[in-house]
Amino acid sequence: VLVFMGFGFHPTDAISDETIYYIYQSRDALGCGGHAVSVRGQLLDNSFSIQRVSSVGGGAAGSQSTTTCADETFCLLAPQSNQCLALTGDVASTAQVSVTFTDQSGIIDSDGQEQLLECDTSNSDNNQQLCIFSPPPCSESSAFPSCVVTLLTGQELVDDPSVLYNPNPPEQVRETAYVVYYSDDICTDVEALHGIVLETSNTVQGVDDTVSCEESVACLLNPTGPSCAALEASLSDTTTGFVVKRDNETGFLYSCSDNDESATCRNITTSACTKSQMFPNCYQRIVWGPDLLSDPESIVTPPIPVDFSLNSTYYLIYFESLDSRNCIGTSVAIEGGMVGDRKTFQTANSGSCAADTACLLDPTSPRCISVIGGQVDTAEIRVTYNEVGSLQLCDTSNVGAGEDLCLLNPQNCDASSIYPSCTYALLTGSELVAGPSILQRENPPEEVEDSIYVLYYTNEDCIKFGALRGLMMDTVNEFPQVEDLELYTCQDTLACFLSPNGEACEDVNTVGMTKSYFTTENGTSPLLSCTEDAGNETCTEVEFETCKPSELYPGCYYSTVRGVDLISNPIRYITPPTNAPSASPSEMPTETPSMLPT
Predict the structure, then answer these.
(1) C-alpha separations of 317 from 330, 436, 550 in Å
(2) CA angle 545, 546, 551 (to 5 degrees)
(3) Which helix (H) or strand (E) holds 214?
(4) CB 3.0 to 4.6 Å from 154: which of 15, 264, 369, 470, for a disulfide?
(5) What is the pLDDT of residue 558?
(6) Higher pLDDT, 390 or 32
(7) Per residue in 205-240, pLDDT tens?
(8) pLDDT at residue 205 in the model
(9) pLDDT at residue 364 above 80?
(10) Strand 391-395 relative to strand 378-385, pairing
(11) 27 Cβ contact partners less than 8 Å away, ≥ 6 residues apart
């Protein structure tokens, strides 16, 4: 169970006052609470067509109704879906629906507040639009006879998302998903929810980057309405079709292009906050229907993390001092990883912590090989959060050889079983950013001079720290290259930098491995970064402390730092000042091959 420290619930006010939501719930003796099965949004004073369902099953006159609210609301989310067509057959009974405030009719509640009126041709017998007051907590549904409906503004839904809560959603909900749009890049300021039926084609009218996320919602919820039409000059030339599918064995969702001849599918990480391709100023999450209904607060009003990616990462810092009360100031190396992923380390016990930790950074490096003398002995570690949210290190080199023994995060420095000449500290990425001075040491030992650190940042000024890894000189490293799909944030892709073989990296699409290493000519300056591609080697002089865009991890920027410089002044690199130099467009590489790892 991952428990992220530093969370605070975010009272978002980003959602437009113009959005309205229909929450459909199963009709039963318990009333409206706890039985939501579907939700659909629309804009105030924008009508849309809704596919009605007959009060008798299958649309056949005189037959006994066997449908449920969950069955009927397939027609709410996707009238063209097979599930809806199975209910309606060839009978196309539609209603025009819109919602308006009661200032047009003068209906005021006891608190003097305007009320919502639901205007719907299914409210009358003569197919004329009739506006009726929909009192809380719910009302009868004229379009879906097995349902009751609650009508809320978007802000009311944000204020109390528990109206969507259903601890045991019916089986039909397993065939639905929701695309949730946010106006911020960490997906906390919700703008709209859009329900879809799995395996069913969806068409979206996109807009250009001059339209705010809040305005873009008009073309999501009511693509044929006047609010979207008002954006005519900013509409995309084409609409985009997509299908969401689910692998029932793995539970993974996939978003597929709606093209039978060359459809491409991409794995979706539900927790991932990705930039929207159709609405450039929005970010989105795609959520399975049961996940939304069983925990709506985490989707509609998610807490603000210190930084999701940083709380998903950990760092091991190794110190020369064996005094757990006085080890700070003696650091020699730092290595990162992803929480939950397993990593294998080459153990070493030469009597010198600085020498042994060459095996931490790279077990194939010449320095590590000279330390272990050909004796290969590995330990597998896994850093996790325990049930109360404390970080712990699970390590096969602990007592009980060959078995995971989990030790709580040491308060100061603890003896290392992998490198007995060292003590170590275990921190989350957030803790490292909050206190980088734990790594600081004056006059690092000469062994540190063989280490090079690559630091990644999530902004183009190399200010916002993302991740770091240490590498050894003259050792070839392989790094997965993430496909540039504009679906992943920098934080998502850095999982492949820290743990190339881990589960988190499996959630993003990669396009092969890239080999790289650092070296010097004849052991003298300057330092070169070399890459191998199809047997061809390219070497370029390293520009230290220069912020460059990454080609391996789209959306990230990186800087290369000597080990002695990082350990001497970690604050400079992990929490750099806001006036640090950035890579201007003229400084970004064009014809020169990217220096790796990038």
Answers:
(1) 10, 11, 26
(2) 120
(3) helix 213-221
(4) 15
(5) 94
(6) 390
(7) 889 989 999 999 999 998 888 889 898 878 877 667
(8) 86
(9) yes
(10) antiparallel
(11) 69, 146, 147, 148
Distance, CA of 54 to CA of 366 (rounded, Å): 76
Return d(Cα 70, Cα 553) in angstroms, integer: 42
Residue with tokens 């990162």: 336
Q: What is the mean pLDDT of residues 166-176?
A: 93
Tracing tokens 């950035």 back to the chain, one arrives at: 582
Residue 306 contacts residue 178 (beta carbons within 8 Å): no
Decide: helix, strand or coil at residue 497.
helix
Two tokens, residue 379: 């330990």
Radius of gyration, alpha carbons of the chain: 29
**Contact between 532 and 516 (Cβ < 8 Å):** yes
**392 membership: H or E segment, kind and range:** strand 391-395
* Closest CA relative to residue 496, chosen from 478, 474, 472: 478
Q: Residue with structure tokens 């170590």?
A: 424
**Residues in a beta bridge with 285:** 180
Two tokens at 264?
Answer: 């491409």
Assign 3-class secondary structure to 126-190.
CCCCEEEECCCCCEECCCCCCEEEEEEEHHHHHHCHHHHCCCCCCHHHHHEEEEEEECCCCCCCE
Q: What is the pLDDT of residue 538?
A: 84
Average pLDDT, the chain: 79
Work out the burial of residue 430: count CB atoms within 10 Å of its CB; fewer than 13 is exposed, 13-18 middle, 19 or more buried: buried
Q: How far apart are CA 463 and CA 521, in angstroms?
A: 32
Among 554, 539, 380, smallest CA distance to 466 is for 554
Say whether pLDDT at 303 is over 80. no
Using DSSP's 3-state secondary structure scheme, residue 91 falls into: coil
SS3 (DSSP) at 145? coil
Q: Taking every pair of C-alpha atoms in the chain, what is the biggest distance, in angstroms?
A: 92
State phi, psi for 545 to the nearest 5 degrees. Answer: 60, 30
Residue with tokens 């449908």: 67
Which two tokens mark 451? 């280490």
- Strand order, beta sheet including 451-457: 465-472, 451-457, 557-562, 548-549
The three-class DSSP label of residue 276 is coil
Looking up tokens 């990480």 gives 269
User: pLDDT band at residue 108, thresholds of 50, 70 and 90?
Assistant: very low
Angle subtended at Cα 194 by Cα 294 and Cα 27, rounded to the nearest 5 degrees? 55
Tokens 């507040």 identify what position?
A: 113
For residue 59, CA distances in Å to 52, 89, 118, 516 come to 10, 7, 25, 65
3-state SS assignment for residue 106:
coil
The answer on pLDDT for 254 being more than 90 is no
Residue holding tokens 């629309």?
42
CB-based contacts of 119-126 (< 8 A; 24+ apart in sequence) = 119/47, 120/50, 120/95, 120/96, 121/95, 121/96, 121/97, 122/50, 122/52, 122/95, 122/97
